[in-house]
Amino acid sequence: MTLSKRKFGGAAMLRKYGIILVLLVICVAVSFMTDSFLRPSNLQSVARQVSINGALSIGVCFVILTGGIDLSVGSLLALTATTSALMGESGLHWVICILIGIAVGLLVGLLEGVLVARFKIAPFITTLATMTICRGATQVADGGTSVRSPGSGFDNFFGVGSLGPIPMPVLIMVVMFVVAWFVLEKTKFGRHIYAVGGNEKAAHLSGVSPKKVKIIVYIISGLCCAIAGFITCARLSSITPTAGEGAEMDAIAACVLAGVSLDGGKGSVGLVFVGVLIIGVLNNALNLLGVSSYWQDIVKGIVILGAVLLESATAQRSKE
Amino acid sequence: MKKLVSLLLVAMMVLAMSACSGDDPQTGGENQTASQGGAGEGTFQGNNAQSYDTTYKLGFCVNSMNNPVFVNWINYLEEHAPNYGFEFVYLSSDEDSAKELSNVEDLISQGCDLIYLSAVNTDAAAATVRLCNDAGIPVFTIDRILNTEECDVVLQACTDNYEAAKLAAYQCVEDLGEDGGTVAILRGTYGLELAQERYDGFMSIINQYDNIEVVTEVYADLDRELGYSATEDILQAYPDVDAIYCGNGEMAVGACQAIKANGHAAGDYFVYGFDGSTYELELIEEGYLSGTVFHSFNPMNEAVLGFMRMYMDGEHRVPISLRYSASWCDASNLEDFWYVIEA
Which among B8, B92, B105 has CB closest to A293? Predict the structure, then answer.
């Protein structure tokens, strides 16, 4: 009896944390193939590179946990950062610019949440529409050209500065992950999110308001987009109208790698962090190894498929 | 099982660390010899691989690979960089400034000694170049000019787009003849300096003729598909338009394909391109494209490689800017340009 229980526990562990194993295998393999990979300066740049996708993935994770999807994150990243940058151009202090950018993110998130929760429009369609609207709004706002960031204080805080050896964007991402983990695992609201994603009706009957929960997760995603936008803008000390194009796909991929169920209700934000690292390490490794950019996308796709297959195989086995 | 997994993980981490510590001193040593042997001969030597004692790693970050012109650069550099004692590696930014920054970070991690950059966006690229400046890695650029007040670039090479655009304008004036006519313009990305120069140069001539009227200007972002759809719209709105001037080769290819697809014959419209890709030359052969501005990218890249070598050998007095003139290529001299491309 105890033996079979332990066996089951092992399989469940592997299913749940197999993704960490995948990350480690990739890291070990790459470190054998090139010496540059484990250099501190390279690890630092990998960390900086993943910070934008990390910030976006947190928001997407919240939305997916309720059974939704958010395609608008890349465009909203551009819109929030562009708004802040334009405010900076008009002479406002960068802290105020940030607040305005965040307000834009929250507003768009609120709009998406209301459309999904109150008007029952499918999340895929809602966010597909807001994705194009945000991209268009960005181009209207900046006239199709890049805009300078709101100043060096802004750049230092979000992009080029560092606290000790830790670059600011990495610190910001890590703090965001810790907060997200705390909210999802340790608060009542976190349990409500899982409840709504797992079984909306049951959640409703037990006194949770699915509408409220859904609206709030889109607002959270909007906030994450704004922060990711600030990091992008600060790192380049400018923001281009095409910034964040296709970023939603990397964010969703990180969640899928982490085993966040697209049906909602299942998944851990801690593992999303690992998923983000896998995508980042893979990008970095393919560059370091000099893999042609034509082949890079194919390799990335195969790794994502492989990881998900591995996961579903172990899931099946643990069911049997 | 739990124990097994954790054991496995520990073993892997140990392996990873030993892999790192085992190889590091070696590469460090290589780098040192590279930087020491650099000083000395400052002479400009042609294509002779044997004459260079030290090899440097040249990292090229190209703004995208969806334009045949950019792919040509890579092919050319891949073939010729070794002649100057460079190990050549490249990455594509896919027209994304954030990816460009990551790419350059990765090139630096790879141990590149110098960076060659064709920027996606000139404002955003300044931050990327500052990263190289901080790391003490010299940067050379091609095609898009960065603002050197914000970052240090050793040498910037590009076509004199303003003057080159006049070549297309002269051809347009000649084709439309004494009666004049109407022109539609497909412009490159809004706010991009080279796109603006290609427009301004063209207009500086066209504006001198009262009988030539520009009926519409559309931004098609230097993209083939956007050029195609924009041309379809132009043909709907202005079926009587005489000529279409395209601010780059990809848009010109799109325009010609739209003209073909809408059932027009070769020569129904005068179409002018800008770049001189193989696709454009083929369309000139077929007669859909009247002619194109032909960049001198091969000699430009050759010169840049030479100056890179001089710079790495310790001669820091290289020109800060190289502006190349372009040629006009049409059916009459097409043979000469095929020869250049195939060379």
Answer: B92
